Amino acid sequence: MAQRYVIGIDEVGRGALAGPLSVGVVAFRLGTDFGPVVLRELKLNFRDSKKLTPQGRERWVKYLRKRDDVKFRVASVSSKVVDRLNVSRAANLAATRAFEKLIDNQMLKTRPLVFLDGGLYLTGDWGRKLRMRTVIKGDEKINAIKLASIVAKVHRDRLMTRRH
Question: In whole angstroms, what is the distance from residue 125 CA to residue 132 CA?
Fold first, then answer.
């Protein structure tokens, strides 16, 4: 069997006064190293997006784009959708959309380990097809969720800058 993937999912913009709610999904092979060598290269710590500077988040995304063994996607829902569905259902909708943009048959065959932050879950049949685990404060504990947080925050920040 092919090497298993780890997938992290996190949202940003929950409770924001303006703009969309965005969800990032990051996948990499189990055992992928984001250790001391990478951190020295980036001159960064590895933490949740809220604890990094905007420049630090941008450096992380630039680094991830260069890596062939890391894949990521982002999906957003507008404030109108949040108002119509409620914030939790809207976040889960965006999480499912981002996940479905990322996942492919090769990844599915490896039975990936899926980690979701906080109260997020994927809608539809995904819960029966995959092993998923929701981790409270996962953006502080699980590397895949930390990266998903960073990717989502950079995406949302760019959207908000363009709108400004």
Answer: 12
pLDDT in tens, the chain (164 residues): 568 899 999 999 887 778 899 999 999 988 887 765 566 666 666 666 777 888 888 988 998 998 888 999 999 999 999 999 999 999 999 999 999 999 998 898 888 999 999 989 998 888 788 889 999 999 888 889 999 999 999 999 999 988 87
pTM over 0.85: yes
Question: Taking a C-beta distance cutoff of 8 angstroms, is the pair 141, 34 a contact?
Answer: no
Q: Which of 121, 115, 114, 72 is CA-nearest to residue 92?
A: 121
Q: Domain range spanning residue 123?
A: 5-163
Kindly state the DSSP code that residue 17 receives in the 8-state scheme. S
User: How many domains does the structure of the chain reveal?
Assistant: 1
| CATH number of the domain that residue 51 is part of | 3.30.420.10
CA atoms of 47 and 41, how far apart (whole Å): 15
